[in-house]
C-alpha cells in the first residue's frame, strides 16, 4: 500500500516536471511576448477555457505575439470543446472565414459552432447564427430565424445584432416591415457612436423613413458617420455636398469625400471616381456622364448603395 502511495507521489512529481518543462519551453518560444500572453498561456495549459480563448485571440489578432491563425484555431478549439461560449463563437469565425483551417471556409462547421455559442447565450454567436440563416451559409436560408437570432443578440446588448435587426425591420425580412422600429434601432446605435448606424439614421432623415424628412439632420448624421470611418457615410457626405442636401453645395468638398469613400472601399464612390476619369478623358457631356453612372449603378451588389 505504501509502495502504491509512493508511486503516485513520484508519478505526480514527474508529471509536474514535464508540465514545468513544457511551460518553460513555451515561454522561451514566445520570446519577447507581452506578460499577459505568458499569463494566458499558463492558465490555458491548466485547461482554463477563458484563458484558452484569450490566448487564441492573442494569436488571431497578433496581440503581444506574432499573428498565427493555426495556433489561434488550436486554442479556440480547446476553449470551445471545454464549453466556453466565446471560444465556440470564435471557432465558428475560424471556420466561417477560413482562418487556421484547411479549407478556405467551412460554413457547415461554422454554423454548428455558432449554434453552440448562441444556445449558450452568447450575443455575438447569436448574431453570427442570424447571419448564417440570413445568407443561407451552412444552413437553408430562413429570414424568420435570422430575425429571431438578431433579436436575441440585440436584446443581449450586441450592437451588430441591433444593426441587423434594424435592417430586417427596414426591408421587412423575417418580420413585417416597420420603418419606425428600424428608425429606433438606428437611433440607438447612432447615439452610441456606431458608424454604420449613424449613416443609416442619416438615410432615414433624408428619405423620411420612420420619421419626418430633415435634410439638416441627415447631413449631420452622415457627417458623424463619415468621421467615424464609414465608407458609405463618407460617400453620402460627398453626395450632400454635391447636391446641396442639408448643406451648401461645394463640389471640391464633394470630390474630397468621394475620394475618402473610395479609399475606404465604397464601390459607389469608386464608380463615380472612374466615371469622372472617363468624362475627363473622353470629354463626355453631363447627360452621357449621368447615363454612365446610371448604367454602372445597377451592377452594384447591395440593395441600396447609400446604407
TrEMBL record:
InterPro entries named among the record's database cross-references: Sel1-like, Sel1_AlgK, TPR-like_helical_dom_sf
Question: By its UniProt entry, which Gene3D superfamilies does this protein fall under?
Answer: Tetratricopeptide repeat domain (1.25.40.10)
Pfam families given in the database record? Sel1 (PF08238)
Q: Which family does it belong to?
A: Belongs to the sel-1 family.
PANTHER family per record? ERAD-ASSOCIATED E3 UBIQUITIN-PROTEIN LIGASE COMPONENT HRD3, SEL-1-LIKE PROTEIN
Name the record gives this protein: Sel1 repeat protein
